[in-house]
Amino acid sequence: MANSINRATKGRLRSSYISSIISISLVLFTLGLLGILVITAQKLSAYVKENIGFDIYLNEGVSDADALYLKKQLDASIYIKSTQYFSQQDAAKMMANELGEDFIAYLGYNPLNAYIEVRLKADYANNDSIARIESWLKRFPQVKEVDYQRSLINLVNDNVSRIGLVILIFAGLMLFISLVLINNTIRLSVYSKRFIINTMKLVGAGWGFIRQPFLLKSILHALYASFIAIALLIGLLYAINKEVADLLAILDPLSIMLVFVAITVTGIVINFLATLMAVNKFLRLSADDLYY
């Protein structure tokens, strides 16, 4: 009879542990997915901004050597991600391809200026920074004009800011929900063992001695839950990457590893603190209060 009761008790505890681990792993999976979404949004934002640029039109008569010297100066600047030089002949060829005819033969001369196409680093892809860069560029004698679309740059930055704010609010909400769910799961798990806690108190065990196995088990369960969440995330990323081949080009391995480490640490910390608070609560209760 005693053996059957012990087996039933162990079965209930095992079931409680498994349900707790699964619940926490699903919450950590959601947090990990959110982390990957945030990183992807940041990288896409940087990609869009780094495709914002402008053209530097050069004065007539500027030699290729002088133009390439200016290009070298730009490449050394902290603002610039990349540059590309187009000579008058290059500009004429591109215009002829667009028009579908040789306009130089019709005009008798090449009216186009050589220019340098500039792509900015993401942090400087805004009108204020470009205005300062424009003032700096106009000091070079080779530069005739700096051409960029102010309205487009404002539109891109405004949209990126709005999307970033929405994702930030959503991330904060999801983090709060995750904390509540994990805390409730742990409290229910500890609640099922409240009589064991009380029995240990009655035989004279100290609070630290009683807390220790619960806290160690909470760390172990958090690790199990983290491994399950990471496995689910890897499976999801693999499935998405089969459909969207460029996903892993956006999400570099280091970023993915940081997400995995973050959800593992988050799971351990939240589990530990929630278990500590729950056990302390039942340690303070009297035997009569345990039935309510």
Short description:
Helix content is 73%, strand content 8%. The protein is built from 10 helices and 4 strands; from the N terminus they run αβαβααβαβααααα.
Describe the structure in your own words.
It is a single chain. Helix 1 packs antiparallel against helix 6 (150-191). The longest helix has 49 residues, at 2-50. A 4-stranded antiparallel beta sheet has the order 2-3-1-4. It has helices spanning 2-50, 64-75, 88-99, 103-107, 127-137, 150-191, 194-202, 207-243, 247-250, 253-284, and strands at residues 53-58, 80-86, 115-120, 143-147. The chain contains 10 helices and 4 strands; from the N terminus they run H-E-H-E-H-H-E-H-E-H-H-H-H-H. Residues 1-6 have low confidence and may be disordered. With 292 residues, it is an alpha+beta fold. It is elongated, with a radius of gyration of 31 Å.
Index terms:
about 290 residues; alpha+beta; 10 helices; 4 strands; about 10% strand; elongated; disordered N terminus
